[in-house]
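$ fold --in a.seq
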Amino acid sequence: MIMHALSLVGLGLLASTIECTGEVPKRFSVPARRQKEGLRRRDGNEATATEHVVVDFAFGGQLIPMSIDSGSSFTLVASTLDINKQEIEVLPALFNPNTSSTYHDENDPSDAYDCSGNSATCVMGVDDVATAGLTATGMSFGVASHVENGVFASGQAGSIGFGRQSGDPTTWMPRDQTFWLNTGANLDLPYLFAIDLYENKNGTFDFGFIDTNRYTGDITYGSMDTSMTNWNFNFTAFNIGTGTSQTVDTFTGIVDTGGPNIGLPSYIVNPYFDSIGGSPSSGNSHTFPCSAYPPPDLTLNLQDGGQLVLNGSFLAYPPDQYSSGETCYGRLDDSEQTAYNLGASFFDQKFVIFDHANARVGFADKRQDGQPQGVQATSTTLSSTGTAMTVASTGSASATQTPSGTGSLTSPTSSPSASTTSTGPTSATTSSGAIQARGVWNPSEMFIFYLLASVLYYI
């Protein structure tokens, strides 16, 4: 009887643990849309089309469409503090700090300054920020008190930073404590998020897991230099099409959802377009005869092994876009910088993984036929409080995770080899194919469960 009672107690404790795990899912998915057609503005007109990646976030329970910027760690949201009605009436939503019970100023409201070079002024505020069941409690961000025309011109009402600063995150300024940093500690794969975007349709933003259905082939990883800002990795050589590999001085690429194209050194871009009869045009772009479309692939060799093969059809606009019928335009820019942006034309062709815990960025070829069967885009919506995620008409899941403080956030000093195959967990799906945010039993929980079940059986 004593053993029976102890077994029941053990099973009860395990059940409560599992139930708690179910209440706090460790992996999340949320739709991400490329603003090709834009959202409705508050004045009822259509917003301008752009390349921005937009995800809905709740600030203090108020739903705001935000562009995702992995090239910045700063978050700025348009607000009712801006008295220039002409500028803000075109925005789809405004954050009202006066109606949020969880909001407070981080500093003196009169201490306004230029917000990360965004042609805007703001005050720093603190509030809960949420999406898809994840909540960053007490996150610092800029509340815009003035924005210039055009700062948010594509159906978004703010920009949320998903970048990173250099060094140990515990030393970062409060304004650089990003959403992914605040919510990443308790995910299945801590401090990891993945982006699956498409040029002409919605994609998905995943937190805490790698969905093996979203890509084909192997994932190639590039090691980050954590002494630098941004999600970076180095290249040492390139080749055009099936041509010979050419070694070059090491240069750094950064993965930036806020950029439209791919920018590379002139000693790569110029010979690339020369190979198809192209020539420089205004700015840093190139034109070429449409008869040469699609242009050849471009391969970049990573410093620590592996290759990034850029599909030529994504490095130029097709003849039916922005062309005169004879002259086509490239999406590969010549830009002499200390680091080079991999922007929208990179995300259009690659499934991309941001892995802070292992100091690396991963990428793989995505399935060009769109979302595979059984992994359809989620129907995620936020509740009025911004903490619930509706995953399908057959069910829903909600959870709140609070920031873990500093946790084990020291910058990693090593990373796995550059090229590896991911066999990570896939997401759960409902019968309708919608992804569910959910908790999972880990192996130790399963072992304890079956052990106790066996004890009860023999008792």
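$ fold --in b.seq
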Amino acid sequence: MFYDLNVPYTTNYAELQRTLAFLVDLGYNTVALSVNLSGKLPADLASLIPFPLPFPIPPNLHIITRCTLTLNDPSQNHRLTSLTSIYDLLAIRPTSEKALQQSCLSLPPTDIISLDCSIRYPFYFRQKTLLAAIDRGVRLEICYAQGILGTGDARRNLISNATQLVRATRGRGIVICSEAQRALACRGPWDVVNLGIGWGLGKERAVEALQREARGVVVGAEMRRRSYRGVIDVIHGGVKPVEDTTEGIGKDKGAKGKEKVMTRGKRKADDSVDSGDVGNEVEKPLSKRELKRRAARARKMAASDEVKAPESTVKESSDRKENSDVAMAESKDEG
């Protein structure tokens, strides 16, 4: 699955519908519609993206909402926790070095740090600061639409800033998005992979920027919003159906057609043999202990038979001798 987590929301629904349809044709499965906020937030916060959208969307496209907050003054309280409960994703766009440092180190956990790579920053991206944000689970975003439809300076700044980001983060924790306001600025996933390779990313890292890293942002935001401290998620596992055990009450237990009642998955003792098969009971298999007992008993009987055999032969020979002696005496008397 390929993700594009930054498609600006506009009230020009015809152009927005065309952009979403073109992204589906290019192979994207999940798209985040983004709104930009800056300055002090209003007291009554509400989502600026209607749901469902007022036009049909492709059936195989999953749409989520995103808020991109431009951070100018780090000391100002922007109520980030209230925004996380309204939008699916929360992105911070710092405009100064101090705001970037605060976004990476001390702000409440956000999902994405989005840098406008089409402008020239008066500072360098520090490796220690960016890696600290990645270790907290925050991902860094590079948007390519400004370099496609922008001016020559925008393209030059995009290449410079993207290369610097890749060098500072060693290619880790980077998400590549379009930020395309028109369908003309969208590019296919493998074209974006080639862009990432040109900025210094390896091929595997560039593919992960559109798949694994982007999916981690979506799943992490959902876990942070639904679970307890992002660790335990309570879900509804369903209700176990209650078995009706009252059907067999009042029926004759010895009848042929009585119904078997299952209790805790075990069969009752009186139901082990059906009423029609009483005469054809199947013997239970003998245990190992019983087999040993029978073998020992057979050995004893064989040994006793061997002892009795010599005694019988001696007795037979003595009987034969007595019979011969009697016969000889009788013959002498007759003579």
